Amino acid sequence: MIDQTALATEIKRLIKAAGPMPVWRYMELCLGHPEHGYYVTRDPLGREGDFTTSPEISQMFGELLGLWSASVWKAADEPQTLRLIEIGPGRGTMMADALRALRVLPILYQSLSVHLVEINPVLRQKQQTLLAGIRNIHWHDSFEDVPEGPAVILANEYFDVLPIHQAIKRETGWHERVIEIGASGELVFGVAADPIPGFEALLPPLARLSPPGAVFEWRPDTEILKIASRVRDQGGAALIIDYGHLRSDVGDTFQAIASHSYADPLQHPGRADLTAHVDFDALGRAAESIGARAHGPVTQGAFLKRLGIETRALSLMAKATPQVSEDIAGALQRLTGEGRGAMGSMFKVIGVSDPKIETLVALSDDTDREAERRQGTHG
Ligand SMILES: C[S@@+](CC[C@H](N)C(=O)[O-])C[C@H]1O[C@@H](n2cnc3c(N)ncnc32)[C@H](O)[C@@H]1O
């Protein structure tokens, strides 16, 4: 079936004019095209939408992130003003829950300014409605627009939507994966004619040994370096939560999600979420390469349990009806458990801080490599 979205027409025009399009450019256009991009035109979250995220599953998630933010404030010697920044805040649910939890610390709460970095006008409107009444709150089009100062930076399911490159191993070397126009006029995957010079030497040792046909994915370090240099120079820490792998390795994780199911990424460009797993190893290395400190990564399940999610669930259940209590138990399992539909080991968490902060609460990584080994590298 030939796709007829306006964006498909535009992408084909660009391919005809300039030749095959690298996967990262295709992903960039599908998600961020100023008129037709997926993240510019809609609220994709929730049962009626395409996917559900941790903050939408339970209030416990945002509450615990609020308390984790307080622990960073303490570790940073309680600065008089703290910027609480969220990148890609969805409906604003996580920030609302975090701020409610932070009210228990009036000195910190009074010192906060809240900054939401969001490109999506539909979601920005929802955030403004939900967070109406919060003092000292600001919206920004880009992270660089947030004023200077010590900060806690939160990003849940943000990195997976940042465009990736893919390279495929052939007998001739590693070639960039591209999108081109097939015999019937449809969008199809292809590979660039020439190999990428010197690519193999840049790969992690595991990936170098892979057979022809293997796919290696990578994201430019631009976003993580912006975050890491900010906390290195101005103090504080960032927390990045997403699905992904602890160690860099080969694997094709480029996927489309629509109506809570996998879809063909080349069908209906601009109408499905396009994502790829996050390489947490690469994030940590990039942050440390410029002198920030990386903490973890650990699995989401371990992180939330160390922050006390089980105790919080019990206290909510004690006041709830049997039906609500069952929902809370279900949410706990989904956020921290393993296996189908559960996010406990599929999702990982990494902290990046000012190097003066030696440890971040719940982010020592000792036990989690074991979970990754059991699950396989590309969980
Ligand atoms: C997968 S959603 C996650 C939403 C939210 N963090 C949650 O967990 O529910 C991705 C979020 O990132 C936003 N986003 C996508 N690209 C962005 C960009 N380049 N800059 C800032 N926000 C972006 C989307 O509009 C959305 O709010």
Automatic annotation (TrEMBL):
The keyword Cell membrane does not apply. Keywords: Methyltransferase, Transferase. Its EC number is 2.1.1.-. GO terms for molecular function: protein-arginine omega-N symmetric methyltransferase activity. It is an enzyme of class 2 (transferase). GO terms for biological process: methylation. This is DUF185. The lineage of its organism: Bacteria, Pseudomonadati, Pseudomonadota, Alphaproteobacteria, Hyphomicrobiales.
